[in-house]
Design goal:
Quinone Oxidoreductase, Chain A, domain 1; Rossmann fold; alpha/beta; 2 domains; 334 residues; single chain; globular; 26% helix
Length: 334
């Protein structure tokens, strides 16, 4: 089969690779129809993710069709977290924290920038006929934002409808978080995005206040109830701890760099809640899929769809800050 293979820092090649095959009776073979480029894929491409060594097929935001068995022909969205189902976290519904978990696009599981993948049936959500594959492929990244917003809602001291909220970053994670905030009741939502080319798509996606934080046009210090950092750099953490209100909350979902930026003294003295959030639970994934399928996320027409062999150029475009869409999705089956 054809696959887009990460071969080293800043290097991708379309290659012929061995077809996957199910390794257990629970696994099924899926023909991939669409797979989005994620920030984790970019980290690997930059050579910054030791969990994803080259050569490796990346990609985990996938939708496809089962090709064998009694469910052949069924279109499904893929939850890429393959968990043990027996540890403390799995048994308590926090499967994202399962220690022995495997993730598609990390060894030993190759990713979905390929024509086929093998996945446990329990990791699949059936996609209704009226939902386009590219929309269903957003389930995984949007589930990250859903999980972050759900945790934020549980930690806040006021209803989401009364809160001023700031999302740092206008990529798919940031925009997905903003859309989830709307679903959870927020109305005063700001999005900080330094890539001006994305502003039109962000404004089209919802009633958001989109601005470039370098201009100083956003919320002032100590005025925001909830901040979701979808970038995760020292600079965004510094901005978050300065802008959040006393008694407010910061939800950190970005993984740009590991250290720096937090004003621990202010966070302590002003009782600011800091929540680290990673991926989503099984229920979060299902709830996100349901919200996509019934239209609560809106038309989801801010996607840039490209063929598999355009993948290397797409990665370079994202790296250069030239991507106009919050999400580029590849069609590995073409």
């Amino acid at each position: 089969m054809k696959a887009l293979v990460y071969t080293g820092p800043h290097a991708l090649e379309v290659r012929d690779v061995v077809d996957p095959s199910p390794t257990s009776s629970d696994e099924v073979l899926i023909r991939v129809e669409a797979c989005g480029i994620c920030g984790y894929d970019m980290h690997a491409w930059h050579g910054h993710d030791e969990r994803r060594p080259a050569p490796l097929v990346l990609g985990h935001e996938a939708v496809g069709t089962i090709v064998e068995g009694d469910k052949a022909g069924t279109r499904v969205a893929v939850n890429p977290l393959v968990t043990c189902q027996s540890c403390e976290h799995c048994l308590s519904g926090r499967e994202n924290l399962c220690y022995p978990r495997q993730i598609i696009s990390m060894p030993p599981r190759e990713g979905a920038f390929s024509q086929f993948i093998a996945v446990p049936q329990r990791n699949l959500v059936v996609v209704p006929d009226h939902v386009k594959p590219v929309a269903a492929a957003l389930t995984e990244p949007l589930a990250c934002g859903w999980h972050a917003v759900r945790l934020a809602a549980e930690a806040m001291f006021k209803p989401m409808a009364e809160a001023r909220v700031l999302v740092l970053g206008g990529g798919a994670i940031g925009l997905g978080s903003a859309l989830a905030l709307k679903i959870f009741g927020a109305t005063d939502i700001w999005i900080a995005e330094t890539n001006g080319a994305r502003h039109a798509a962000l404004n089209k996606a919802g009633d958001f206040r989109v601005y470039d934080p370098r201009t100083g046009a956003g919320p002032e210090a100590n005025t925001v109830d909830l901040i979701i950092d979808g970038v995760g750099y020292a600079a965004t953490r510094e901005a978050a701890t300065a802008t959040v209100k006393s008694g407010g909350a910061i939800v950190h979902i970005g993984l740009g760099e590991a250290t720096g930026g937090l004003d621990i003294r202010r966070m302590t003295l002003q009782e600011i809640t800091f929540i680290g959030t990673y991926t989503y639970t099984v229920q979060d994934f299902k709830d996100t899929a349901a919200a996509i399928f019934d239209g609560r996320y809106g038309p989801l027409d801010w996607i840039d769809l490209r063929p598999l062999d355009a993948g290397p150029a797409a990665f370079q475009e994202i790296h250069n800050g030239q991507a106009q869409s919050p999400k580029i999705i590849l069609e590995p089956w073409t």
